[in-house]
């Protein structure tokens, strides 16, 4: 297994940040032929999504999350900016992990799929994401 941490800045607003390039580069550096890429965000207030980006789906996701998890004072978890408690509910809806097959040295994503960090916690704009590559023995990624 190979593993590394990448740093991502999500900014001070609700965000969907594409990390597909970083994931692809990690798999390429590892020299993997086949296996599984596991993406994990070790934060209680962010998630990992696989979805189409740039065609409005990312904005639609953020709009849906704003409806489901409004940034107001209804949350019992109260610290940080108003509505911060909603960020702690997010990982139940957008899990903090995703696993993608690696086939013939490439991520086996669908044509329009991307890997993204989903972050509605405006109090923490910096995220560490652990990329782990699980490969078969003698697969070139030792």
From TrEMBL:
Organism superkingdom: Bacteria
InterPro entries: UPF0047_YjbQ-like (IPR001602), YjbQ-like_sf (IPR035917)
Pfam families: YjbQ
Transmembrane parts of this sequence: none
Similarity annotation: Belongs to the UPF0047 family.
Protein's UniProt name: Secondary thiamine-phosphate synthase enzyme YjbQ
Species of provenance: Lipingzhangella rawalii
């Amino acid at each position: 297994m190979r593993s590394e941490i990448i740093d991502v800045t999500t900014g001070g607003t609700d965000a969907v940040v594409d990390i597909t390039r970083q994931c692809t580069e990690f798999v390429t550096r590892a020299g993997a032929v086949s296996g599984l890429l596991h993406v994990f965000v070790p934060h209680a207030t962010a998630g990992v999504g696989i979805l189409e980006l740039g065609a409005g789906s990312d904005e639609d996701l953020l709009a849906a999350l704003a409806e489901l998890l409004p940034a107001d004072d209804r949350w019992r978890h109260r610290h940080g900016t108003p509505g911060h408690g909603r960020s702690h509910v997010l990982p139940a809806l957008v899990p903090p992990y995703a696993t993608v097959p690696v086939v013939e040295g490439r991520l086996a994503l669908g044509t329009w799929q991307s890997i993204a960090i989903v972050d509605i916690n405006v109090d923490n704009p910096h995220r560490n994401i652990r990329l782990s590559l699980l490969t078969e023995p003698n697969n070139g990624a030792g």
